[in-house]
Design a protein that fits this description.
about 325 residues; about 30% helix; binds gibberellin A4; globular; single chain
Length: about 325
């Protein structure tokens, strides 16, 4: 669906990337959750790309379309109304500015917790009586996607032959799990309108970064823009698919697997033809959790590549980082 809103900020000066070379890539690893080979395919994809696409995921289509239309309703509201849900410090409505350290992008967003009650408080002031519809769509979606994320983490543990099966998923299931959720709207970019993709200069929607958490589950509408880095400096464009989910390995999972799985560097470019709406669940551990390689993934004399740290310590240091920084660099053993 295309919907038009005014650019969130009329005085915005675009962030660009000089790297215009991106391969259109049809080889994104594909995992069918109902097939018996899914665990091996997940492990291979996490080792090679830190990224894969999930089909036959079991999340009801109705949950997805309901939340998407609630998101569109929200982003179509006048700026002054949306701002009632902001500023994002760290949770709430924001536009054009990402984090606290000067990153900008052609995007507006809602950053939320996965905790039902704090979200409903925030939306009462924005939606009044219809806050309930928004929150119920949000909660149904988050519960279903969290369940799928846990299933994927259990398949990972099986594929890695580590015990117990819930060694990773229990971190998301913990009542204290510090997971969060993001709705992003990338409005049509006026700067790119009427330009063919070959002549369009790259305008940054959301700058390159790796996700801090364990696992991220992304769903977007059928608008392109997402790119992943192959690590050799090249970027590949991920063909959009509104019926599937895309999974990112986060920094914490990279550490838990002692670097066997790679967190994937990714970014979103703005689009001059269609707006993009994405929703992302970031599955994180409790703040007090020690993030260190799982004993069962270590072979023989293998040593940890990282100094031990808690999720709280990682988050504290992430707060003062720029989006593109290598946040794990700080914890690497020399
Ligand atoms: C990237 C992944 C998630 O969107 C996010 C982002 C967070 C934010 O938007 O506030 C951060 C970014 C993300 C990593 C470094 C810091 C924090 C912006 C930023 C510059 C919600 C998250 O958890 O980390």
């Amino acid at each position: 669906m295309v919907f038009v809103t005014k650019p969130p900020n009329e005085n915005f000066s675009y962030a660009r990337t000089s790297n215009n070379v991106s391969k259109l890539f049809s080889g994104i690893p594909l995992v069918d959750l109902t097939k018996p080979d899914s665990k091996q395919l997940i492990v291979k994809a996490c080792e090679e790309y830190g990224f894969f696409k999930i089909i036959n995921h079991g999340v009801p289509t109705d949950f997805i379309t309901r939340l998407e239309s609630e998101a569109i309703k929200f982003f179509s509201m006048p700026l002054s109304e949306k701002e009632k849900a902001g500023p994002p410090n760290p949770l709430g409505y924001g536009n054009n500015h990402i984090g606290k350290n000067g990153d900008v992008g052609w995007v507006e967003y809602l950053l939320l917790t996965t905790n039902t009650e704090s979200n409903s408080q925030r939306f009462l002031s924005v939606f009044g009586n219809s806050a309930e519809e928004f929150c119920s769509a949000l909660n149904d979606y988050i519960s279903a996607v969290k369940k799928m994320a846990c299933e994927i983490l259990e398949l990972m543990a099986e594929g890695l032959k580590i015990q117990p099966r819930n060694v990773l998923s229990k971190l998301l299931m913990d009542e204290q799990s510090d997971s969060c959720f993001r709705l992003n709207h990338y409005p049509l970019c006026p700067e790119l309108q009427g330009l063919s993709s070959a002549s369009a200069r790259n305008v940054i929607g959301f700058g390159e970064h790796t996700d801090p958490q364990i696992i991220s589950v992304l769903r977007s509408n059928n608008t392109s823009g997402l790119q992943i880095s192959l690590g050799d400096g090249s970027w590949i464009s991920v063909p959009p698919d509104q019926n599937s989910f895309f999974i990112n390995v986060g920094d914490s999972l990279q550490v838990l697997t002692n670097g066997r799985f790679q967190s994937v560097r990714h970014r979103v470019l703005a689009n001059g033809l269609k707006s993009r709406v994405s929703m992302i669940y970031f599955g994180g551990p409790p703040l007090s959790e020690k993030i260190a390689p799982l004993q069962s993934v270590m072979n023989g004399e293998e040593e940890s590549l990282y100094e031990e740290f808690t999720w709280f310590e990682y988050k504290k240091s992430a707060c003062s980082s720029r989006l593109a920084d290598n946040r794990l660099g700080h914890f690497e053993r020399i």
